[in-house]
Amino acid sequence: MSFEMMQVHSSGLGPECDALRNEVRIFVQNELTENGFVPQCDSWLRGFDKSFSRKLGARGWLGMTWPKAYGGYERSPLERFVVIEELLAAGAPVAAHWIAERQMGPSVLRYGTHEQKNKILPGIASGDYVIAAGYSEPDVGSDLASVRTRAERVTGGWQLNGTKVWSSHAHHADFLFVLCRTEPASAGKHEGLSILMVALPAPGVTIRPIPLLTGEHHFNEVIMQDVFVPDDMLLGQSGQGWQMITSELVLERSGPERFMSTFPLLVELVRRCQAEPENTSALVAVGELVARFEALRILSVTIAKALENGNSPGVEAAVVKDMGTRFESDVTETARLLFPVQPSWNSHDTFTRYVAQSVMHSPAFTLRGGANEVLRGIIARGLGMR
Ligand SMILES: Cc1cc2nc3c(=O)[nH]c(=O)nc-3n(C[C@H](O)[C@H](O)[C@H](O)COP(=O)(O)OP(=O)(O)OC[C@H]3O[C@@H](n4cnc5c(N)ncnc54)[C@H](O)[C@@H]3O)c2cc1C
What we know:
The chain is α+β, with helices and mostly antiparallel strands and 386 residues long. The protein has helices at residues 15-33, 43-46, 50-58, 77-89, 95-111, 114-125, 241-254, 263-275, 280-308, 314-338, 350-365, 372-382, and strands spanning 131-134, 150-154, 157-164, 175-181, 193-199, 205-210, 219-230, 234-235. It has three domains: 15-129, Acyl-CoA dehydrogenase/oxidase, N-terminal domain (Butyryl-Coa Dehydrogenase, subunit A, domain 1, Orthogonal Bundle), CATH 1.10.540.10; 133-240, Beta Barrel (Butyryl-CoA Dehydrogenase, subunit A, domain 2); 255-382, Butyryl-CoA Dehydrogenase, subunit A, domain 3, CATH 1.20.140.10. A hairpin with a 2-residue loop joins strand 2 and strand 3 (157-164). Bound molecules: flavin-adenine dinucleotide. Flavin-adenine dinucleotide (FAD) is lined by residues 45, 132-136, 141-142, 166-168, 364, 367-368, 370-371, 373-374, 377.
């Protein structure tokens, strides 16, 4: 991050990435000039704007790494990294495509049939499809392999019954990816799980809002009663669900969204320090935050490079998620303590608005994508300590 420019710095990722970064910055600048969006903190969760996602799709910035045959652009994970980093830095509204593009698309690409790839991937790459994750259930979050949603074999497909909670954007979704039990857990709870892709709306599926503290409608409870899912909407093989979920989680946990949800607020903090150069305690505190941001970014880039080389670094991803989400919360706390304001959602002052957004959303940072305590267990195992 450069203190003068208050932008993510561009060095070190190669000339293609530098050129792409400039393209994204020009696009973002134009959007801001034309009032295309209002920057916000936690924009990858709260900035739901399908028309913005479609604009990204039209520029070739969704599904960038996927084969051209399925709507992708065959670009590198590092190039994708640059695009998402710039969009997050700008607080752009990327929530409509986020889950689909980050994890569902790659899962379909890896485990899906040719027909499934054709059916789903081009719609994600164009920004048209919203996909929700139906994994957590009442009483089942960290211990995900204990899901109680069941699918039973019927003629031509599966009959699905169960309840999911915290399903982000399910009320907008074209598909809900449901983790369910298709075989008994007799061989162990990680066996016999599958992922069914439910096209929405569907008979038997009821979606109810679970309002956030802020009143926003983001989460849902999804009740499935005798929902018929045709055979061709089983992703991969029956019983392969746990393997698919764990490979998806590396993508879910290692990206820059795990330490950039409060980046717009960090930039405002830097601005305040620039306006008060005599405030040395603020300079020290914000300087420490900027240094931590740089370290996290290096770690996240390293994982993007590992993915480029075909590796799946689960432990490192858990480190990014644990350290990154604590960092995001620390940005919020530092802002609150250094420059006290009355947080206000509708304030004309950008800093005040960002503080309000960050304070209200920070309880979710360490929970979503897997509770940090659980991730520390994964790290401990990776270090041979468990
Ligand atoms: C903003 C947001 C968006 C989300 N979106 C989705 C979504 O789209 N789809 C979806 O399926 N889910 C979603 N979730 C749910 C999320 O995956 C779960 O909240 C998360 O996995 C934790 O599960 P839980 O809430 O049931 O907490 P629990 O599992 O009950 O854990 C609560 C606390 O208990 C402790 N704990 C639990 N197990 C352990 C352990 N083994 N070791 C140490 N401590 C432990 C931890 O302190 C943890 O924070 C979302 C959550 C949030 C906050």
